[in-house]
Structure of RING-type E3 ubiquitin transferase (cysteine targeting):
Amino acid sequence: MVAIKNQYVPRVNQIDVIALNTDITRLIRENILENLQAVFPNLSSKIQPELDLIVQTAIWIGSIGKCSSTFGQQLLVLSYDPERLTLSKLALHFCLTILPSYIKSIEERRLGANFNWLRNVIEWGESTVLTLSIFNFFRFLKTGRKPTLVDFLLGLDYISLRHNQRREIGYKYLTRELLWGGFMEILGLLLPLINFRKLQRQMNVLFKRRQKTDSIRSNFVGDIKPKVLPTTTCAYCDERPTLPHYMGCQHVYCYYCLAANICTDSKFCCVKCDKNESCDRFRML
Ligand SMILES: [Zn+2]
Ligand SMILES: [Zn+2]
């Protein structure tokens, strides 16, 4: 199928492309780097600039190198004008978009005090690029073409692959987003209302785990008053107990942890040993 080329691309779409590109790169990069950090914590922090370079190169090859369009452009059915995207411009595009961030992270992580001149050069370069980008943005607002500085330097225009000048909005994603947002709100509202401890106790009763715990319980004859040592923690919240209380077993609870649990479930059992005392029998230590 021959794609229909349309030279007009609304400015807002071109700005969206830049935002989408940034977000997509950030998402992929963070996911990969976080996973690597978990598997090889020491190695990945040492070679992070190289990992960054590899990830960004892979994204660049998979998008511009392969289809002459960034992922952001593909989402909005746009592309770079393939007639203008020659091999030398492709190479320059790679150098101008990927390599500066690599050099910057090398400078931040590895260069010592001897390389102050390089640091100054990079700072100067950054300020220049920033200033030129601002001028370029005003030029873009006026002309509606070449939104980034790199696009302007290489003379690359965006084209629409759809012969339709209207701004297309992906309602499919919008609806999904709305549904998901609604679902998350319901979850946020309902989850705090569910007493998971009570449900767990009822499940235990259902599956007859009580038989096992009864035998444990029989070992604790009478009222064992636990001692509060400097290392003692609340059996429920695992913090130093506030107003230590107990419910007949050897485990210590904060007053609030115990009172709140008994308030919501009168048959509340000790979370450590399953001992169950009636609600009016929790005592202060
Ligand atoms: Zn507590
Ligand atoms: Zn206990």
